[in-house]
Amino acid sequence: LPMLAAFENATSSLPRGRVHTEYFAANKHFSEDKQVKIVLHRSKVEIDLLPGQTILDALLEAGVVVPFSCSEGICGSCEVR
Prior knowledge:
Blueprint: H1 3-10, H2 28-33, E1 36-40, E2 45-49, H3 55-61
Antiparallel strand pairs: 1-2
């Protein structure tokens, strides 16, 4: 199993709030069956994430200026607190 799938299997019995997983590409299973809304707390902006869309792409499409370089979550330039 790939590492993230193995982690999800190993933590499946834990409450959702106790497990954090980050994908640097759209998770097909998750993105097809869940409605996701991105909330930018400081600016009070809400953006709907479309199925298969990355958060970075949704932010850029909405006109939000976001520092990024590799678009794959590897370089860390788009990392936020």
